Amino acid sequence: MSAATPLDGPYGFIGLGNIGAPMATRLATRDGGLIVRDLRDDVVATLVAAGAEAATTTGDVGRRCTGVSVMVLSDAQVRDVTAELFDSMAPGGVISIHSTIEVATAQELAAAARERGLHLLDAPVSGGFIGAADGRLAIMVGGDEDALALVREPFGHMADLVIRFGDAGAGTTAKLARNLLHFVAFTAAAEAQSLAEAAGIDLSGIGRVVRHSDSVTGGPGSIMLRTTTDAMVPGDDWYDTMSHVRNLGEKDLDLALGLAESLGVELPLAQLARRDLAAGLGVPHTV
Fold this sequence. Notes:
N-(1-d-carboxylethyl)-l-norvaline Dehydrogenase, domain 2, Rossmann fold, 6-stranded parallel beta sheet, 3-stranded mixed beta sheet, 13% strand, 2 domains, 11 helices, alpha/beta
């Protein structure tokens, strides 16, 4: 495939939902302009008021832009939008899919784009509405490195962390791994609330403590320091640190599980954590 044309004209953004709208707003006044498309006239009008230009169809966006971001809801919607962009964009254009979709969908669409002389990046985001509004998203990218280079300027309006993880599908894989932690942690938070409530502890106070301490320590991500999940041996750089975390964690989990038993509260995630923490940290107990 020939090198893509530099993105020196208007940029396109399709899908102005809870995250897409603030992302697009960050682009509304960029040099070169922004063309937006959504089925809801009211959200389009808001972006136009912010400095963007409205397109009447997805094909119109594709014909006028060499780079387009897509932030719609589902795999089916992504397929519908990309089909119209495939038919309308000039060769060399870059389509960035910010929606969270299946890895296989990302790989399939990237291959279909190549057949048409286009680049397609799977580039899901993390950071939520606040990150989108502040331009502080993290964008996880799968796809061609040269294509990413072409969209770093518009990406820079929306994100302060952009990491390419590999070929097509790698960005989506990274997002699924990140969100696995996110929603398992939410479930663990609910479990912790159950224990606190059964013991008569104020839940809002516990919430304040968790948010405060996580803002200091970094929360669960603070232990994601290694480049492999293999077991460590004494002398490895993180062995002493992870051993300390393991010992402290197992002690506190034992105390929490003992309290839960006395209160008749089920803590299935805590039980799994007690079983798997050591191995997960890379410092399993030796027999």
